[in-house]
Amino acid sequence: MSFRILGTGSALPATTVSNEDLTKFLDTSDEWIRTRTGITERHVMNDEESLLTLATAACQNALEMAQTAPEEIELIVCTTLAGDYTSPALSCLIAKELGLSDRVITMDTNMGCCGFEYGLQIAHAYFASGMISKKAIVVSAEGLSRHADWTDRATCCLFGDASGAVVLEAAPDRKVDFDWTVSGNADILNITRHADNSPWNSYDGKGVLHMNGQEVFKFAVSSINARICAVLEKNGLAPDDIAKFFLHQANIRIINSAIHKMGVAPEKFPHNIERLGNTSSATIPVLLDETVRAGGIQRGDKIVLCAFGAGLASIACLLEY
Ligand code: COA
Question: Is the CATH number 3.40.47.10 carried by domain 177-320?
Answer without folding.
Answer: yes
